[in-house]
Amino acid sequence: MIRTACDPTIEKHFKGHENTITSLCFHPETTQLVSSSSDKSIILWNLKESVRACRFLGHKDIVFDVTYAPSGEVIASASKDRSVRIWVPKITGQCLDFKAHSGAVRSVQFSPDGEKLITASDDKSVKLWTVCQRRFLMSFTCHTSWVRCARFSSDGRLIVSCSDDKTIKLWDVTSGQCIRTFNDVKAYSTHVEFHPSGSVIGSANIIGCVKLYDVRTASLYQHYATHKSSVNMIKFHPKGNFILTASDDSTMKVLDLLEGRPIYTLKGHANGTGVTSVTFSSNGEYFASGGTDHQLLMWKTNFDKDDVARKMSRHLVSPVKESESNMKEEKSHKDDDISGGEEEVESLHEKFDTINLKNGRLRCEVPDTGVLDGNIEYKVINMRNQRPFEEGRIVNISHLSKESPGTCSSKIVDALNEQVQSLSDAVTILEQRLSILEEELRK
C-alpha cells in the first residue's frame, strides 16, 4: 500500500505518565495538550519545544477526565477521589477543588459559554454546576447504575449521558427533565458525544460497536461494528464528517459518516495494549491518542483534506458488521502497511515541571522520567478504495469465472441488489441531511 498525502501521520510522541492515559484535550488554539492518567496526575504538554511540560498533582486517586474551558483559561478534571478540580494551566497557577459526588466522578465538561460544568458519577447521577462559584445547580437522577459520561450539545441546551444501566438519556438543561431514552439491550455504552450539528448522538460500547442516534426521531441512525474489543472513546471531527474511535484491540479507526464505513485503521500504540482516549484539535488539523502503554501520540489528520476523493462517486452505506475475513485481509497486507520512521519525541529531561498541591502550596520538581527512542513504528491501513457490498464486508468477485454460469449470474445479481440498496440508503441519508440544513437555515 502506497503512502498518500491524505493518510494520517504521527507528528509528536510524548511519554511522562506512569500509568494509563484516561483523557486528552487540546487547548482551543492548539498551543497545548492536556492529559489525565490513572497515575493520579495531569500533564500539560506545550507543543512548542522551547516550553516546558508541567505535571499537576493534587488528586488522590485516578483522574478519569480532563477538559479545557472554551476560553482556554482554565482546566477542569474529574477523579475517582469524588472531587472535581479547576486548574489555571500555568506553572504559577492555582487550583480550586470541590467534592462533587458521593462516588467516583467519571466525566466533566464545560458548557459552550464556559459558565457551567456538567459532571457524571458512579453515584448514578449527573450534576450541573457554576464554574466561578462552584455552586450546585441541578441534579439529573433517572439512571439506575454508574453514569460513565455526560456531554453538552453545541448550543448548551441539551445534555446526553450514558450509563451501565444500558441506556443513553437526553436531558433538557432548563427543566432538568429526561426527554428521550435510548435503550441498548446488548451492552452498556462507555462514551457519548454530540455531533457538531447537535442533531445526532454518537455512542461507543463494550462490544466493539459505534452507534449514531437521531435526536429528533430517537431512532438508530448508523451502526458500525468495527472493533474486536471494547470501544473506549469516540470523537467527532469538528467538520462533522468523520468519527475517530479508540479501542482495547490496540487500534483506532476513522469512520466516514458520509459513506457510512471505516476508511482507516491506525496502529500506533504497543501491541496488546488498549487505546483509551482520543481527541481532535478545534480546527481538526490534529488529533491525539493515549493508551494503556502510558504513551501519548499526536497525529496530523490529513484525511479531512481529501477533497478530490470525496467528489468521486462512492456508495453511501449503513454498515452492520466488519467481518473477520476483512480483519485477516488487513493482517495479510502487513508488508504493505505504512511504517513511520523518525518521529519527533518530546524529551522530558530538564523540560518538565511538577506542580504538587500540598498544604495549600505549589512546588516544582523534576520527575524521574525516561526518554523514548526517536523511532516509533506505526501503521496506517487505508480502506478508502475498498467498497463493502454486504454487511460491511468486501466482496471479491475475481473468482466468479471459475464457477458455473448460473452461480456467477446469481452472485452478480446479488451484488447489484446490494448496490441498489446502497443507493437507496444514500438517498435516505441525503434527505436527512437536507432536513437538518433546512432547520439550521430557518434558525
Automatic annotation (TrEMBL):
Compositional bias per record (Basic and acidic residues), positions renumbered to this chain: 321-337
Example of a GO biological process term: cilium assembly
InterPro entries xrefs: WD40/YVTN_repeat-like_dom_sf, WD40_PAC1, WD40_repeat_CS, WD40_repeat_dom_sf, WD40_rpt, WDR55/POC1
Keyword Protease (UniProt): no
Residues in WD repeats: 14-48, 56-87, 98-139, 140-181, 224-265, 268-300
Annotated Gene Ontology cellular component terms: centriole; ciliary basal body
Keyword Protein biosynthesis: no
Region spans: Disordered: 317-345
Coiled-coil residues: 413-440
Keyword annotations from UniProtKB, A to Z: Coiled coil, Repeat, WD repeat
Similarity annotation: Belongs to the WD repeat POC1 family.
PANTHER family on file: POC1 CENTRIOLAR PROTEIN HOMOLOG, WD REPEAT-CONTAINING PROTEIN 55
Name of the protein in its database record: POC1 centriolar protein homolog A isoform X1
Primary gene name: LOC100651663
